[in-house]
Design brief:
The protein is an alpha/beta fold. It is built from 5 helices and 7 strands; from the N terminus they run E-H-E-H-E-E-H-E-E-E-H-H. It has one domain: Maf protein, CATH 3.90.950. Bound molecules: inosinic acid (IMP). Inosinic acid (IMP) binds next to strand 3 and helix 3.
């Protein structure tokens, strides 16, 4: 069995990823390796931030690992909040971040948006990059109580419910992180 450290302390992400990889891989969080450092996301792109996270773990612990970064890219807002999704409103408060998105889109009919996840995997000292994208639209108001972040206002294309109204398994099948993880899993299976 392959053990990988996921450079996150976000329990929602940890849960999604563990559900996706199933029993084939063991995924440890930063807490599991007693890493309490808050890895600063100082990159200007999702790729840079994903690499910052995986490289921090690899350089300090010499373990096989991966880091991810996700952005909500809204067409009418020039792909903002993008790499700034976590602190769009100046705080990490998801409700405030959602409020700001809804406010900026007031009166705008183009609601097209996508979630994009980049994963940086470091295995046997080499780095590999995987990307997952899900296209959808920003709702005019929140719907659903599941998930996290911007889930309550994101309706993936082909559905009439938001991510926050989906069960985890359903979200994982089509989501940005689920798709990027799927690529990572296929890659590991071919090693
Ligand atoms: P992170 O830096 O990869 O944690 O992602 C940045 C921000 O994007 C998070 O703080 C969330 O607000 C948002 N985000 C990431 N993944 C998701 C998701 O699956 N659903 C909704 N929002 C997400």
């Amino acid at each position: 069995m392959i053990t990988l450290v996921f450079a996150t302390n976000n329990p929602n992400k940890q849960q999604e990823v563990q559900a996706k990889v199933g029993a084939a891989f063991k995924v440890l969080s930063l807490a599991d390796i007693n890493c309490t450092h808050d890895i600063a996301e100082t990159g200007l792109t999702l790729d840079e931030n994903a690499s910052i996270k995986s490289r921090y773990v690899f350089n300090n612990y010499q373990l096989n690992c991966f880091g991810d970064d996700t952005g909500l890219e809204i067409e009418a807002l020039d792909n903002q909040p993008g790499v700034y999704s976590a602190r769009y409103s100046g705080t990490r408060d998801s409700e405030k971040n959602i409020d700001l998105v809804l406010q900026k889109l007031t009166g705008i009919t183009n609601r097209n948006a996508r979630f994009r996840t980049v994963i940086s995997l470091i295995i046997n000292s080499k780095e590999y990059i995987f990307e997952g994208i899900v296209n959808g639209a920003i709702r005019h108001q929140r719907s659903g109580t599941g998930g996290f972040g911007y889930d309550a206002i994101f309706e993936p294309n082909g559905y009439d419910i938001t991510f926050a109204e989906m069960v985890l398994k359903e979200k994982n099948k089509i989501s940005h992180r689920g798709l990027a993880m799927q690529k990572l899993i296929l890659f590991l299976q071919q090693l």
